[in-house]
């Protein structure tokens, strides 16, 4: 302890009057000392004790220490990357993982413990136990093959002192189903929506779509022999319940020039084909020699891949978009001979299918009108349905209560699309319908209205052949709109206000809501049809591909009130 000799001085002036009144006026340098300090034995002399530091009042605070750059990057062992998501594994994949000792001291890797489901190899530059120097990093090679379970879920733990970082590997193994379809039986595509329809007593419908995107299945026949018959047996025996990469054979193209191994760009025309970013592509020369790849981006004249091709493909090799799909759990195969097999295969596409909606450009009263002419290769059957209840107590006559006071007509029309542009437009229109959800206007394609006299540009009354409309139109539900097809190909849509008696017995007059703005003779009209508010009467629609550019479709339709 440090001690000092001295005296304690007062904080103010002494009260002794001997100082006199003039004391307070003396300058500081001439101020007289305290008399006690000059005495031989000052009254308060003694040792001074140092009591520092003075204790402080302790206050506690709760909070979290904010990590800074050093704590984030150093004093740990890092795996870069710590997770590998392979996605759809179409071929053997190689990845590198960096193990970095970010400590400022050596660390020993005692072991790598792996929960490996098979088909995965982790190769270290030096097998453990091994010591990583201060800030040392090493690259480990990871190889994942198609051999193993369909779902890839593997963890590898690197055991260091006081920490054990884990490498996670995930993905799904996919095998290409390269057997080509037998086009004699076509290629059947099913698009399946889901709609909940509630119908009121007057026929008004409340429709709720349960799927934003349709499910999809593909069905086709194969006729294979020799080696392909054996390949079919292998695929069904080893992979039937797993995921395949299924080529979309109607979209097949042929390479015009060779594509070298290591290439990431394949030149081909993609317009109206199913190539899409993050989708799949299959390239090959035959059913057993194929390669699948993931698509990074799509241009009108080329497809860019996420990973380089593993082998060179010559001119003439086929290229198709592909989808992940599963075979049905039961699959029948007919053996024509000991070396020839025949089968009808049904694949369910994994996940939903996104189809760009393409609504009809023609509208009437803000509702689209579909004017595509059906293919009249067979009879069109029409069912007139009424929301009527028959009251029968079995003791007297029956009574019928027709709630809607109108029929709802169900028809099925066939359509033929002759090129890829027409098929793409139809698929877009079909996507806009969402199954039974969205209604549209549709001509009945029944020549019920036949004009008999010229109508002038400013007239709204047309003379037509008598069909009994003047007698029953009140107005007639479902018969208040008409579609007029001019010989120049233009459609005109009008609301029918009324029917009335004509000047002679075999004629009637039809009043429409607005004139056409031009004179028209009876022969100027190719046809006049009633126009019905309609929806599809099925959530599952089949597209029957006859070739890669010709497709047939049968659409069931039902007239509705709204």
Outline:
By secondary structure, the chain is mainly β. It has five helices and 38 strands. About 5% of the residues lie in helices and about 40% in strands.
Description:
Helix content is 7%, strand content 40%. The chain is built from 5 helices and 38 strands. Strand 19 (280-284) and strand 20 (290-298) form a beta hairpin. The longest helix is centred in the last third of the chain and has 14 residues, at 420-433. It is elongated, with a radius of gyration of 44 Å. The protein starts with 34 loop residues before the first helix and ends with a strand.
Q: List the quaternary state of the chains.
A: single chain
Beta-strand level of the residues, as a percent range? Answer: 35-45%
* Dominant shape: elongated
The number of E-state strands comes to: 38
Query: What value does the average pLDDT take?
Result: 88
Stretches with pLDDT under 50, minimum 5 residues: 12-39
The total of helices stands at 5
The profile of the biggest β sheet is: 22 strands, mixed
Share of helical residues: under 10%
């Amino acid at each position: 302890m440090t001690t000092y000799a001295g005296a304690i001085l007062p904080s103010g002036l002494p009260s002794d009057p001997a100082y006199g009144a003039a004391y307070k006026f003396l300058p500081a340098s001439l101020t007289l000392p305290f008399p006690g300090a000059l005495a031989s034995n000052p009254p308060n002399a003694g040792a001074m004790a140092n009591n520092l530091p003075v204790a402080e009042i302790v206050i506690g605070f709760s909070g979290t220490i904010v990590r800074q750059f050093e704590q984030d990057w150093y004093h740990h062992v890092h795996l870069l990357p710590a997770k590998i998501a392979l996605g759809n594994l179409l071929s053997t994949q190689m990845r590198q993982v960096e193990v970095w000792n970010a400590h400022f001291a050596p660390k020993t890797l005692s072991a790598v413990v792996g929960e490996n489901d098979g088909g995965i190899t982790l190769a270290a530059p030096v097998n453990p136990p091994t010591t990583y120097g201060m800030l040392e990093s090493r690259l480990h090679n990871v190889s994942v093959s198609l051999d193993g379970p369909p779902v890839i879920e593997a963890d590898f733990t690197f055991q260091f002192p006081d920490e054990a970082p884990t490498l996670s590997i995930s993905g799904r193994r996919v095998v290409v189903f390269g057997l080509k379809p037998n086009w004699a039986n076509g290629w059947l595509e099913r698009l399946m929506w889901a709609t909940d329809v509630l119908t009121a007593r007057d026929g008004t419908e409340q429709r709720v779509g349960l799927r934003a995107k349709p499910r999809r299945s593909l069905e086709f026949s194969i006729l294979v022999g020799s080696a392909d018959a054996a390949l079919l047996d292998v695929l069904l025996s080893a992979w039937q319940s797993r995921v395949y990469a299924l080529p979309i054979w109607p979209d097949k193209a042929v390479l015009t020039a060779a594509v070298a191994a290591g290439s990431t760009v394949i030149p081909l025309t993609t317009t109206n084909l199913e190539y899409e970013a993050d989708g799949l592509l299959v390239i090959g020369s035959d059913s057993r020699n194929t390669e699948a790849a993931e698509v990074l981006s799509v241009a009108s004249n080329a497809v860019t891949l996420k990973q380089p091709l593993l082998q060179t493909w010559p001119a003439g090799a086929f290229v198709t978009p592909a989808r992940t799909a599963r075979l049905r759990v039961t699959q029948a195969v007919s053996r024509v001979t000991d070396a020839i097999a025949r089968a009808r295969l049904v694949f369910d596409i994994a996940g939903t299918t996104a189809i760009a909606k393409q609504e009809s450009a023609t509208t009437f009263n803000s509702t689209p009108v579909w004017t595509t002419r059906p293919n009249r290769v067979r009879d069109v059957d029409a069912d007139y349905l009424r929301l009527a209840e028959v009251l029968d107590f079995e003791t007297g006559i029956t009574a019928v209560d027709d709630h809607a006071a109108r029929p709802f007509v169900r028809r099925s029309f066939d359509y033929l699309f002759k090129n890829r542009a027409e098929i793409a437009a139809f698929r877009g229109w079909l996507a806009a319908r969402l199954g039974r959800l969205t209604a549209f206007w549709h001509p009945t394609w029944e020549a019920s209205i036949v004009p008999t006299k010229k109508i002038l540009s400013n007239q709204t009354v047309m003379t037509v052949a008598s069909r009994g409309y003047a007698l029953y139109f009140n107005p007639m539900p479902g018969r208040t709109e008409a579609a007029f097809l001019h010989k120049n190909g233009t459609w005109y849509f009008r609301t029918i206000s009324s029917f009335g008696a004509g000047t002679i017995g075999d004629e009637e007059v039809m009043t429409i809501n607005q004139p056409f703005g031009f004179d028209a003779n009876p022969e100027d009209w190719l046809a006049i049809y009633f126009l019905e508010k309609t929806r599809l009467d099925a959530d599952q629609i089949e597209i029957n591909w006859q070739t890669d550019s010709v497709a047939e479709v049968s659409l069931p339709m039902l007239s509705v009130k709204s």
